[in-house]
Design goal:
single chain, alpha+beta, 3 strands
Length: 138
């Protein structure tokens, strides 16, 4: 689910558009709402509210009764629906390998490449600070 949720809609649609045609019963139609984001100072301090984020969720059931659920950041109803369908198909023994090979692996490669690009851009702006030793001049 992490790969499906973190992927961009364009990338997911490109690799999984075929699976969008699979007929599924909508248990919960795609709907958008807000979640509260919480944080901690230093990772260990008291929790505090950072703000809200928009999330879209969806739940589907395939013809053989397998349920799929998704939560994705943003307001894209189609992204949530297709991610839920992929989640259901991943739980189907007959489809899991196919979804892994045709959808998850390509999306994972794209996510890794984007992370590497962002890392290289950040590395290019790195500033090395050094401390001069202060002492008496001889």
């Amino acid at each position: 689910m992490r790969v499906l949720a973190l992927s961009r809609w364009d990338d997911l649609k490109k690799v999984a558009s075929y699976f969008e045609l699979i007929s599924c019963e909508l248990i919960r139609e795609p709907e958008t709402g807000l979640i509260m984001l919480r944080g901690r100072m230093g990772g260990t301090g008291s929790a505090f509210n950072v703000g809200e984020a928009t999330v879209t969720r969806c739940a589907v059931k395939t013809h053989n009764g397998i349920e799929g659920h998704s939560y994705v950041m943003g307001r894209n109803l189609q992204h949530a629906r297709l991610a839920a369908i992929c989640d259901a198909l991943l739980q189907d023994e007959k489809m899991a390998e196919k979804i892994g090979r045709l959808v998850l692996q390509p999306l994972q490669k794209i996510l890794i490449e984007r992370r590497n690009i962002a890392s290289r851009k950040a590395e290019a702006t790195k500033v090395d600070f050094f401390t001069l030793v202060r002492g008496e001049n001889d």
